[in-house]
Design a protein that fits this description.
11 helices, 10 strands, five-stranded mixed sheet, Nucleotidyltransferase, domain 5, alpha/beta, 333 residues, 19% strand
């Protein structure tokens, strides 16, 4: 079985060819960081235009690298949402045209579900499991009941975790994307230098809020001074508050549903400090936590393809008139 995966959910254009469930024949990712860094964040119009410019050549590159012909493809899988709607529509329209011309079935994939299922590119996880998807655009907890069946049990009420990191980096003039910059600057910092709040920690739900935490940081920075001497400690404390907030809700979800298997995906999951923090906390709480390799945490088409594999096996295909969407369906499927 040869599966084509296409992802244009935000500012990365990615196309992958997958053989079976986890043999990656190609996984091409074209980043737009250089285009957006001058603005301190992704500009939707620029992102969608760039997708239009390169998606055809990227498809040819992915097919060539995989050493297959387009006629050999068995199914076309594409991000249907959530994401920047202009970007999503570029990939969706390309996929529809390709599937129609090749007379192949098409499967629309939920980008957030794909982050949760990306772990299957590297290892099998027993269902059910709980998944945290944490990135610049999304922070949510999914109850993965079985392949192709999940529920969104918690989500952010405002900023995503990665978004909060990016905004603080922009506030301090550190550059974009902010997450990796803060990760680097926090390496030698003291995580207890400032006791930042853990928003919604005591609430009886699995939701997050990072806007207040971001405001707490800005208020502290305005009252005090972020200097070369203390910036490592200040950022380490802020980053730790985010990680602690995330894992606190995972513990609640694990106890509520009686599931001790946790899968973490999304761009922020590539943060080495988050990975070590989560593993330490998981050991203390009797949980098993699993991460894809850092390269498979960030947006890529291979995770779209592997999610499509499970839908293909169940004959769950999409109509050609399916619509793209910008926000995740909080009810799941």
């Amino acid at each position: 079985m040869l599966i084509l995966g296409i992802d244009t959910s935000c500012d990365d254009t990615s196309i992958s060819v997958l053989e079976g469930k986890n043999r990656i024949l190609s996984n091409i990712v074209s980043s737009q960081i250089d285009l957006h860094s001058r603005f301190g964040g992704v500009v939707p119009e620029i992102a969608s235009r760039k997708h239009v410019e390169i998606i055809d050549s990227l498809f040819c590159e992915a097919i060539e690298k995989a050493s297959v012909s387009k006629d050999q493809l068995d199914v076309v899988c594409v991000t249907q949402g959530p994401g920047l709607i202009g970007s999503v529509l570029v990939g969706l329209c390309f996929a529809k045209g390709l599937a129609l011309s090749l007379r192949k079935p098409i499967i629309g994939i939920n980008h957030v579900e794909a982050h949760a299922m990306g772990i299957f590119l590297e290892r099998d996880i027993e269902f059910p499991f709980i998944s945290l998807v944490v990135s610049g655009g999304h922070t949510c907890i999914l109850l993965m009941e079985e392949p192709c069946r999940y529920k969104v049990i918690g989500s952010t009420r405002d900023d995503a975790a990665g978004e909060a990191l990016d905004k603080i980096a922009k506030f301090l003039g550190l550059g974009y994307p902010g997450g990796p910059i803060i990760e680097k600057l926090s390496e030698k910092g003291k995580t207890d230098y400032i006791k930042f709040p853990r928003p919604m920690a005591d609430d009886n739900n699995f939701d997050f809020s990072f806007s207040g935490l971001k405001t707490a940081f800005i208020n502290w920075a305005k009252k005090h001074t972020v200097t070369e001497e203390n910036i490592h400690h200040v950022l380490a404390s802020f980053q730790e508050a985010i990680f602690d907030s995330l894992f606190g809700k995972l513990i609640k979800a694990s106890k509520t549903y009686g599931i001790n298997r946790i899968v973490v995906g999304g761009g922020v999951a590539s943060n080495s400090k988050l990975r070590s923090f989560f593993k330490e906390m998981a050991d203390k709480n009797g949980l098993s936590v699993y991460f894809p390799s850092p390269a498979n945490c960030t947006d890529n088409a291979a995770m779209i393809a592997v999610t499509g594999y499970f839908y293909f096996k169940k004959n769950l295909f999409s109509p050609l008139d399916m619509k793209g969407f910008s926000r995740i369906n909080i009810k799941g499927i």
